[in-house]
UniProtKB/TrEMBL annotation:
Biased composition (Basic and acidic residues): 184-198
The keyword Membrane is annotated on this UniProt entry: no
Organism: Euplotes harpa
Record's compositionally biased regions (Acidic residues): 174-183
Region (Disordered): 1-63, 167-198
Protein name: Uncharacterized protein
Entry keywords, A to Z: Coiled coil
Source taxon at top rank: Eukaryota
Coiled coil: 120-154
Keyword Coiled coil appears in the UniProt entry: yes
Residue spans of biased composition, Polar residues class: 46-55
Amino acid sequence: IRIKGDPNLTMPDGTLPPLSHLATPEGSKRMNTHTDQFFDSDMKQSKMSVSNATSPKYAKDRDSEILSLRDSMKARQNSYNAEAAKKIEEAKEAVFERIMHSANIVKEVLQRNMSLSEDIVKNNEIIDNLNQDIFQLQRENEDLRERLEILETITGKDSSILLGKLRNANQTMDPDEQDDTIETENRKPREEMKEFGE
């Protein structure tokens, strides 16, 4: 078909160009023709029909995969929870053992402290008794010193000289006689002190 008219709308041989290649006067952008609109709508409908049309087998497989994935995630979560619970229980047991060990140590220390306190009380009582004994001995020594001074004034001689003479005399005696003499000499001062005390 040859149509005379605008040279921009005709081919060199005078025929019309295909409608799909018809350009705007600017020549920069493609213009959709009537046939292109029908073609595009058919393609869109076919794509939509393909995407929306799901076979029962595919749907079943997809559901099974979803269920399998869900079960797998649930199993992993349960495994993680079980492992976490196990670790928590182990940590609790370790802490409980440490607490019991510390409690036993504290108990032993308290028992030792109580025993030491009792020993300290006993030692203080012993020290008090010893102090009383020392005080009593000091008083007795003072009494004996006073009596010795009185005896020295009575005899008119120093008691140390008398003791030296007695020792020299005992060295020349037999052992048996020496023992008898020592007992007699020891008895005499006691009797004299007793009489003096009376």
